[in-house]
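Run folding on both entries below.
>entry_1
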Amino acid sequence: MFFANKGYKLDRAFVKSISSIALPMMMAQLINSSVNLIDNIMVGQLGGFAIGGVASANRYFYLGLAVIMGVSNGTAIFIAQFYGAKRQNKVQESFRLSVIVTLVLLLPVMLAAILFPDTIIRFFNKAPGLLPAGRAYLPIVGIALIPQGLSFCTQSAMRAVGDTRTPLKIAIVTVLTNVVFNYLLIFGHMGFPRLEVAGAAAGTLIARIVELILTLGVAHKSNYYFTTRIRDMFKISRDIVKEVSAKSFPLTINELFYGSAMAMIFKLYATRGTDVMAAMTILGTNSDLFFIIYSGLAAATFVVVSQPLGANKLDEARANGYKMLRFSSYLSVIFASLMFISSFIVPEFYLVAPEVKSMAATFVRIYSVFYLVYTTNVQCFYTVRSGGDTKSSMIMDSGFFWLVNIPIVAMAAYWTDWSIYWVFLIGQFVDVFKMILALYLVKCEGWVKNLTVACSDDLPEGDNQELLSE
């Protein structure tokens, strides 16, 4: 492998340690993905236009999720590093900043979903049959972004300090709530009104509200290292705003560009017809079941790389970063095999045309072939992000997507009459070149640095000097 000459071998203690961190997070993501699968199967009973309209709406909401992930993951770097340095007031200030910025950025996304649903749906596909479903779904799920954002910020902070079990427990309750209310409201069971697509959106909103109540309740009761009082929410020092913003802003922009790139790719694939949109929805839901390792790898990287960096244990963090890359590659082989097998099973649950099922199954098999490439790219991103190397993060993520992936797929979509299979395959093959770039950027080691020394106003002068000298 690329890092074989580094000598960073996996040992049983390391694998056991990261597994205890990653597995609860992976289970939480598996539960969420399973519910998304069930949701889509339920909506799929309403027809191809319903699933296509919801798919278009969800592509827009990926932009909202991008805001949440960008802010939360950016601040989580500092939360993890300050936690490793045992500096509680800076952990709290970083958490406060993530909550405020997330709310400010999500408000316009929510308002656009409420006020301009038709415009958003038409951007992805102008088929008139998609509008009723999208119009019913967008405004309600738009409101759900706010409680979802607050929950994500808090749970991201939990994971940054090493607690992945609590988010798992909350996820179990949340997804059960979602499934129950979707079943009741989509089809009108047990005396509830039959709301169809609007019922799916209402079920999501109810589940997100329940999730927020549970998350805030647990955070208050458990008194985490980042727990803060509401009246102190705006007590954030200037150095934290400066340093966290310097790292979080590029990550947020990266997530927004990445989210918009995913929406654009979806639009390009959709040039081959509405059947493609339905097949892509099945692909996305099915693949999410196997992309759960990414959330686990992210949580583990925060603990075994970011926290040692914050404690100024640079050699340990460096070794752990390379070990995580090796571990992720081994794990990806297992998940790729399972994904390939799932292509013969999952599409059959949908009440769609046979050609849509066949198309979705082929997409899943192509994904499984490139799974090692995706996983390597993702773990490289997590590694460089752990040390705040936002420049490399943007280059290997949204930068590559907009400058390479999208132009190549756009040329294939608009300048040729190739089938969707060839267009899709080209879009995935480009990621091989991205992997080469990502591995190079990791090897440059711009991520091996302690970010906490820039925010040292609360340390005694002697401690400052010691950290800076190291």
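>entry_2
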Amino acid sequence: MFAAGNSIFSPEDIIVLRGALDKWCQERRIDIKSAEAQFAATAALGLFQSGYNTSEKLLAALREYRGI
């Protein structure tokens, strides 16, 4: 398990998060190691904790997210 702040993520959660982030980066032609991708990962964690708990929902939310 992976812990971030007060949350613990299961391996399945990490797969969902990484899958959505990978697709988002690919769509924007952004390197996964870039600062922009790191900001997107932070946003993805917050969105996931807010209930966007599938890759499809999370990717859609990242596409609409302002600030990344």
